[in-house]
Amino acid sequence: MGGERLTDRAYTGIVEIINGEDLCVGDRLPSEARLAEMFGMSRTIVREALARLASDGITEPRRGAGSFVKSRPSDRMLAYVPMAELPTTLGTYEVRFVLEAETARLAAARRSQEELTAIEDALARLRDTLLSSAPAHDEDMELHRCIVLATANPAFLSAFDALFADIDKIMRAGVDISRSRPPEVIGAMMREHDMIVDAIRAQDADGAALAMRWHLSEGRKRLMP
């Protein structure tokens, strides 16, 4: 546990350097050795933190050159996800890529007509809410949960519900950030959901999994400025 907490501290420390020093996309971060010295931690801990930051789309390693800024968490996101919670909350994406891509795959293969109707109804509610000025995170969550239910495997629901608090923060931030941008951003979010549901409707298991992974990948990008 101690090592994990140290990695979280290094992770947030690097994000604070990116934001505090106003580093731009493409700027080089201090070296592993320099970061370890700054944080009073081992280079191993710093290396682990940089690996997680790269996985979360914030930094980019370049062989022989160090790590560079790939994107910066937006101020709007940090209003929903406090800095101390950032590593855990963004880290849920790694789990969701595996969990929700597979739930979409199984939902496409197994869904009943009743479950498809529930998914389509949830999609319609999400569309109506996204096109209004109302918050849409509850409708977003409900659609994803309906897809999980269509797997007919309660273990997937247990795993999804265990991530609820972090997914809820991400969905709240994602809708708010998208609404602050040009209208086509909300349009893209809606099209991604349409692609997932279209594949489930067509019982295209591979297509549903790919559509879900694409949606999650694009959703993570929308959290950054």
Question: How would you describe this protein?
Answer:
The chain has 225 residues and is mainly alpha-helical. It has eleven helices and two strands, in the order H-H-H-E-E-H-H-H-H-H-H-H-H. It has helices at residues 2-20, 32-39, 43-55, 75-80, 86-110, 113-130, 137-149, 154-162, 164-179, 183-201, 205-222; strands spanning 59-62, 66-69. Strands 1-2 form a two-stranded antiparallel ribbon. Helix 1 (2-20) packs across helix 3, helix 5 packs across helix 7 and helix 7 (137-149) crosses helix 9. It is elongated, with a radius of gyration of 19 Å. 33% of the residues are buried. The mean pLDDT is 94.
Structural class call reads: mainly alpha
* SSE sequence, one letter per element: HHHEEHHHHHHHH
Strand content: under 5%
Low-confidence stretches: none
Anisotropy-based shape: elongated
Strand tally: 2
The average pLDDT score comes to 94
The helicity comes to over 70%
Please state how the strands of the largest beta sheet are arranged side by side.
1-2
Number of helices: 11
Reported for the largest beta sheet, the result is: 2 strands, antiparallel
Radius of gyration, rounded?
A: 19 Å
Ends distance: 32 Å
Q: Nutshell version of this structure?
A:
The protein is mainly alpha-helical. 73% of the residues lie in helices and 4% in strands.
